[in-house]
Design brief:
363 residues; alpha/beta; Rossmann fold; 7-stranded parallel sheet; 14 helices
Length: 363
């Protein structure tokens, strides 16, 4: 059985890229087709993989500013020649699902979300931009939405990474989807007996993640906060932060694990499709204070593995932190860890293989 893996882009290591890593472990002979590959930003293990890129790879600044080539991505992904493969396993948040395959090829799409900036978060995406930029984006997005909807029909079967994304697939593509939760490396993210009195954020520093909200709250509370991650808002957030807030930039997985193990709790302020970070923290036995919307509702158990705040504003988050300060002793490390174990890598691999076999009609 010849399998190819298709992914939107490999430009930094996030939750979707961890899924590609696991897919490759499952199918070590499968090449990876992707629009852009930034070798310098990816872990060493990716450098030895058979990664095949599109013509966008050779465009100016594509490795770092690939988003500006969004109007070309539908064309680029359609140029991948996948005619020699029996099974295509695409991992898509943008255009990967739009590859063209033979009639007798099985195409399964693991959908992390339908394209956010074309659908659910479109108005947030254009907020604050000038009228000329908004007009240009509107024209481009109209074309992108049409292509995105039509290209969804090229997929034989969708797998959603959460109930939340399953609803989006139904809404935007009018397609049903199975649910297989993403893998969490519970053998790597493990608890320790060490602990310190700080709160933690692990996130890309982009506006919709709402890390600014956490900084504002902790500026007022004066409690110690550590922020791990990089992105276009780094300098802005550093200028906002008081002395009790430390911005660490991007760290290695081992360094992140140590902060998970030692933190008082993880703060997760954004609305995510699923969100792997809360489960990594819980795998280390640490509770989560999360915005009560999106994927966090499927990964955090209120009162057992964390707390929710239900309005994405300072007062709501502040109240949740103050409640946690009083009730932190109620959270049991072992209970939290056992919850995270349900999302392990072996479970994910087993469910994916069973799904593929069922659709191929093989034992």
């Amino acid at each position: 059985m010849k399998i190819a893996i298709v992914h939107d882009w490999l430009t930094n290591m996030g939750g979707a890229e961890r899924i590609i890593k696991v897919f490759r472990e499952m199918f070590p002979e499968a090449p990876i087709y992707t629009l852009v590959f930034n070798k310098e930003k990816m872990p060493d293990e990716f450098k030895n993989m058979d990664i095949r890129t599109s013509f966008i790879q050779k465009m100016p600044f594509a490795k770092t500013n690939y988003q500006m080539y969004l109007p070309l991505m539908p064309i680029a992904v359609e140029q991948f020649d996948l005619s020699e493969y029996e099974v295509i396993l695409s991992s898509s948040t943008c255009c990967a699902k739009g590859v063209i395959t033979r009639t007798d090829t099985l195409h399964i799409c693991y959908c992390n979300t339908p394209m956010r900036y074309a659908w659910d978060f479109y108005h947030e995406y254009v907020k604050g931009k000038n009228i000329i930029t908004k007009s240009m984006i509107a024209v481009a997005m109209n074309y992108i939405r049409l292509w995105d909807r039509v290209s969804a029909d090229r997929v034989d079967y969708f797998i959603a990474n959460s109930k939340n994304v399953k609803r989006r697939i139904k809404k935007h593509y009018r397609r049903d989807a199975a649910i297989i939760y993403p893998p969490v490396d519970t053998e790597f993210f493990t608890p320790s007996d060490e602990g310190e009195d700080f709160y933690l954020v692990v996130s890309r520093l982009v506006p919709y993640k709402r890390v600014d909200l956490v900084i504002e709250v902790f500026n007022e509370l004066g409690l110690p906060l550590v922020i791990i991650g990089d992105g276009p808002e780094f300098k802005n957030y550093r200028s906002m932060a008081n002395d009790n807030v430390s911005l660490m930039g991007r760290l290695s997985d081992k360094e992140v694990r140590e902060y998970y193990r030692k933190c008082r709790a993880l703060i997760f302020p954004g609305e995510e499709d699923f969100g792997i970070v809360p489960l990594e923290a819980q795998s280390c036995g640490r509770p989560v204070i999360a915005y009560g919307k999106g994927g966090a509702l499927e990964t955090v158990v209120e009162g057992k593995t964390g707390l929710f705040f239900y309005k994405q504003n300072k007062e709501s988050l502040k109240q949740a932190v103050l409640i946690f300060e009083k009730e932190a002793h109620k959270f049991n490390r072992e209970v939290i860890r056992n919850h995270a174990l349900k999302f392990g890598v072996n479970r994910f691999k087993k469910e994916i293989v069973e799904f593929i076999k069922a659709k191929l009609g093989v034992e």
